[in-house]
TrEMBL record:
SMART domains: Ami_2 (SM00644), PGRP (SM00701). Belongs to the N-acetylmuramoyl-L-alanine amidase 2 family. Keywords: Signal. Residues 41-195 form the Peptidoglycan recognition protein family domain. Pfam families: Amidase_2 (PF01510). InterPro entries: Amidase/PGRP_sf (IPR036505), Amidase_domain (IPR002502), PGRP (IPR015510), PGRP_domain_met/bac (IPR006619), TAT_signal (IPR006311). It comes from Streptomyces antimicrobicus. The keyword Signal applies. This is Peptidoglycan recognition protein family protein. Residues 1-37 form the signal peptide.
Length: 257
């Protein structure tokens, strides 16, 4: 299993291309805005942060995800906001999921560091997001792994809120996912909505109504009421009582494993 090494199409790439063509000034503003919206945030692919190969074939489901599930990593609220730290976190999570849990790869689809770096988690998640039609089967939320995109936010948000930059990256990433897969912002949930867990922490969980509003503001929606009352009654919808996938948190970075 190798990740694609093709460099991601970033906003910078697009702008550079447009300028090189000398057409930037001639681009209608609305078209330029649409181009930015379609591009989404810069996301570091598995190959960029140094992921190991998955231990077996990652399953790609022939259906789009229906919702987004928000997590926190339950790791320390570090003040190292560097890219190096972000990539080390992604590697540590993958190591923990594969070597301790015995999973085939990182459990979640995407990770956002406290320094606001957005990274691919499970292989192929980024390619599928770009295509906007199918999802990678994940391991982040019991009952939702075939129908939702999981985002891990670095930190522990039981008593403090995420850094503003990290929250802004989360908004941008959720808006991008919602646009790509046509998911309403009302379909953004916390892990605890489905499993018996404290994740994503009381403070981040309390921010989800604001997150739905902020995402809806970017996708142009008006209705932002959560659809939880409907989802809860679906098969595997919630209240299953399984323990958190991160019962003891992720080992401190640097721990030999
Ligand atoms: Zn969680």
């Amino acid at each position: 299993m190798t990740s694609r090494l093709q460099p991601p199409l970033t906003r910078r790439t697009l702008l550079t291309g447009a300028l090189a063509l000398g057409t930037a000034a001639a681009l209608p503003l609305a078209a330029a805005a649409r181009a930015r919206a379609a591009t989404g945030p810069e996301i570091a692919a598995c190959g960029t942060w140094g992921a190991r190969a998955a231990s077996e074939q990652v399953v790609i489901l022939d259906s789009p995800p229906q919702r987004i599930v928000i997590h926190h990593t339950a790791t320390a609220n570090v003040t190292d906001y560097s890219k190096d730290r972000a990539y080390a976190l992604a590697r540590a999570i993958q190591r923990y999921h594969m070597d301790t849990h015995g999973w085939i790869d990182t459990g979640q689809h995407f990770t956002i560091s406290r320094g606001a770096f957005v990274m691919e988690g499970r292989h192929h998640s980024l390619d599928e997001l770009r295509a906007g039609a199918r999802q990678v089967r994940a391991a982040h939320c019991v009952g939702q792994n075939n129908t939702s995109i999981g985002i891990e936010n670095e930190g522990t948000y039981t008593s403090v809120e995420p850094p503003a930059a990290q929250y802004a990256a989360l908004v941008e990433m959720c808006a991008h996912i919602c646009r790509q897969y046509r998911i309403p912002a009302a379909e953004i949930y916390g892990h605890r909505d489905f499993n018996d867990t404290g994740c994503p922490g009381d403070r981040l969980y309390a921010m989800l109504p604001k997150l739905r509003r902020d995402v809806a503001g970017r996708t142009g929606e008006t209705a932002t009421d959560p659809l939880w009352e409907l989802v809860r009654d679906l098969p595997g919808g919630g209240g299953l009582g399984q323990s958190d996938y991160f019962p003891d948190g992720i080992p401190v970075l640097g721990t030999a494993r």
